[in-house]
Write a structure and sequence with these properties.
This protein is an alpha+beta fold. About 40% of the residues lie in helices and about 30% in strands. The chain is built from three helices and five strands; from the N terminus they run H-H-E-E-E-E-E-H. The strands form two sheets. It has a three-stranded antiparallel beta sheet. The radius of gyration is 19 Å and the shape is elongated. The chain starts with a helix and ends with a helix. Keywords: DNA condensation, DNA-binding.
């Protein structure tokens, strides 16, 4: 697993920044993606992928403990679609 701090450390080491500066950059990127997602917009990072908001409709489900049918409300979820460059890098 890679953490925010590990990403920030790698950026700091590779770009002559302090760890605090690079952590602020990483957090700013995540904040921009969050802002785009909450407004319903797509966040695209070239050569990495796209974060999209997808609406899921209301549906019927079953409570596994009781077997009763329950209604699951409609919701939005964030999906990630990797770019071709990322897919190719993973499969080589």
């Amino acid at each position: 697993m890679t953490t925010t701090n590990e990403i920030a450390d790698k950026i700091a080491a590779g770009h002559c920044l302090t760890k605090a500066q690079s952590k602020m950059i990483v957090e700013a990127v995540f904040a921009a993606i969050t802002t785009a997602a909450t407004s319903g917009a797509e966040a695209s990072i070239p050569a990495f992928g796209k974060f999209k908001v997808k609406a899921t409709p209301e549906r019927q489900a079953r409570n596994p403990a009781t077997g009763a049918t329950i209604k699951v409300a409609a919701a939005k979820k964030l999906t990630f679609q990797p770019a071709k460059a990322l897919k190719d890098a993973m499969n080589t």
